[in-house]
Design goal:
Elements (H helix, E strand, L loop, with lengths): L1 E6 L2 H18 L15 E6 L10 H7 L6 E2 L7 H19 L3 E5 L3 H12 L4 E4 L11 H12 L2 E4 L2 H9 L9 E4 L3 H16 L21 E3 L4 H4 L2 H15 L4 E4 L2 H10 L8 E4 L4 H10 L2 E4 L2 H10 L3 E3 L7 H5 L3 E3 L4 H11 L17 H11 L2
Helix pairs in contact: 1-7, 1-15, 3-4, 4-5, 7-11, 9-14
C-alpha cells in the first residue's frame, strides 16, 4: 500500500512523526496492537508543501523528530490564503499524478490540509484526515473552514475524542460504507509520551542564559510560558497590543517567556509593537524538545495554540487560552483550561487564579491511550 502524507506546518511534523513511526513498526511486525496476518506493507511518500519554511520552524523539527527527508518539497512559502492554497493544490496534484497512491493522508486544519484534500478527491484517491471532527464553530477562522471542508471530503476520519465523533455525527458524517469514522485518540499525545523523555535528556533549554539570566532561577524555574500566532490575534494590531500589555503586567510578578512566531514578529516589527518593561522575554522559536521542557516546567501557560492547550493539559500545567473559543473543549470542561480572549484584565486575573486550579480526575483518557498512530495504520491496512 502506498500512502502519500502531506505536511506543511510545525504541528503537522509532530503528528506525522508519530504515524511514520507506527508505519515503520507495522512493516517490521512490531505493532503493539498485534500483527495483521497479511503480506501488506506500507510505503509512505512524504510531501512537504513548504508552508513553514523558516529553519527554526522547519528543518530543525525534521532533524529533531528524526523524520525522513521529504520525498517532495513544494517550496510554496507564504502568501494570501488563496494564493498559498492554489499553488499547493497545483503542485500536490502533480505529485499525486506521478506517485499514484492508494491513500492520501492529511493532518489538522492548515492550508496544506485543504489543498491536499482537494487534490486527492479531484483525482478520486481516498483521503484520510487525522484530527477529524474538531469544531470551534467560528467560521471567521480560516482553520475552521479548512477542517470542515476536509472532513466532508474524507473517506477515513480519524477522531481524537468523543466530542469530535459527535460533531461529525451532527453533520451527517457517520461510520458507514463510504466513510470510516473512528475514535482513535490523539496522535500528539502519542508524540508527547514518546518524546518527553528524550527531551529531558537532550534539551538544555532550562539552563539557557538567554532565558534564565539568574543562576538562582535554574534549579526551580519560575516563569510563565506564552505562545501567540493565530491570525485573529496577530493580524489586528490593537488586539495584539492589548495582549502584550497584559503579558507585561503579568511579567511584573513572574517572568514571561514568549518564543516569537515569524508571523507575530513581522506584525510587531511593522507596527512598532513591543511589550512594556523587562518582564516579557522575547526569544526565537524553540525546538520541539525545548518547547516540551518549557511547557512541563512552567507555572502557567498562555497560548492561542490548540496543540499547546493539549500539551499543557497532559503536563498538568494550568492553561489560559487567548481565544474566545476552542476546538479542545475537553480541556476547558475538565477545569484545566480557561478562555479569556484578548481582554487584558481577564488575562491578568486568570493567570493569578491559575495556580490554584485542579483538574478533574474524570479527564484521564479523554485523548486516548497513546496508541492512536497504531490504530490509524491498522485501519488503513485492513481496508480491502
Amino acid at each position: 500500500m502506498k500512502v502519500v502524507t502531506i505536511v506543511g506546518a510545525r504541528p503537522q511534523f509532530i503528528k506525522a512523526a508519530a504515524v511514520t513511526r507506527a508505519i515503520e513498526r507495522f512493516n517490521r511486525g512490531l505493532s503493539p496492537l498485534g500483527r495483521i496476518p497479511s503480506k501488506k506493507r506500507v510505503q509512505e511518500v512524504l510531501v512537504h508543501t513548504g508552508q513553514h519554511y523558516d529553519d527554526l520552524m522547519d528543518r530543525v523539527f525534521f532533524e529533531e523528530l528524526e523524520l525522513p527527508k521529504p520525498h517532495h518539497h513544494l517550496g510554496v512559502g507564504s502568501g494570501s490564503h488563496a494564493r498559498q492554497t492554489g499553488l499547493m493544490l497545483e503542485r500536490i496534484e502533480s505529485v499525486l499524478t506521478r506517485e499514484k497512491p492508494e491513500v492520501v493522508l492529511v493532518y489538522g486544519d492548515t492550508n496544506s490540509t485543504l489543498a491536499g484534500a482537494l487534490a486527492a478527491v479531484k483525482l478520486n484517491i481516498p483521503l484520510a484526515h487525522v484530527e477529524a471532527g474538531l469544531r470551534s464553530y467560528n467560521r471567521e477562522m480560516p482553520e475552521e473552514i479548512n477542517r470542515v471542508l476536509t472532513d466532508h471530503l474524507s473517506t477515513y476520519l480519524f477522531c481524537p475524542t468523543l466530542h469530535a465523533v459527535q460533531n461529525l455525527s451532527r453533520e451527517g458524517i457517520r461510520d458507514r460504507r463510504r466513510q470510516v469514522v473512528k475514535r482513535v485518540g490523539d496522535v500528539m499525545y502519542d508524540s508527547v509520551l514518546f518524546y518527553s523523555e528524550l527531551a529531558e535528556k537532550r534539551s538544555r533549554i532550562l539552563t539557557s542564559p538567554e532565558l534564565f539570566s539568574s543562576s538562582t532561577e535554574r534549579p526551580t524555574p519560575n516563569y510563565i510560558l506564552a505562545t501567540l500566532h493565530r491570525a485573529e490575534n496577530t493580524d489586528n494590531p490593537e488586539r495584539l497590543k492589548t495582549i502584550l500589555r497584559a503579558l507585561s503586567k503579568v511579567g511584573k510578578e513572574t517572568p514571561v517567556i514568549l518564543p516569537l512566531h515569524p508571523r507575530t514578529k513581522k506584525v510587531m516589527r511593522t507596527h512598532g509593537i513591543l511589550p512594556e518593561g523587562s518582564g516579557v522575554r522575547l526569544v526565537d522559536p524553540v525546538s520541539y524538545f525545548g518547547m516540551l521542557r518549557l511547557e512541563k516546567n512552567a507555572k502557567v501557560i498562555l497560548t492561542d495554540s490548540g496543540g499547546v492547550q493539549k500539551e499543557a493539559f497532559w503536563f498538568q500545567v494550568p492553561c489560559v487560552t487567548l481565544r474566545e473559543e476552542t476546538e479542545w473543549t475537553e480541556t476547558v470542561e475538565s477545569g484545566w483550561n480557561v478562555l479569556v480572549g484578548a481582554r487584558a484584565r481577564r488575562i491578568v486575573e486568570e493567570v493569578r487564579r491559575a495556580a490554584g486550579r485542579r483538574p478533574s480526575t474524570k479527564a484521564r483518557g479523554l485523548f486516548g491511550d497513546g496508541k492512536a498512530s497504531e490504530k490509524i495504520v491498522q485501519t488503513l491496512v485492513r481496508t480491502p
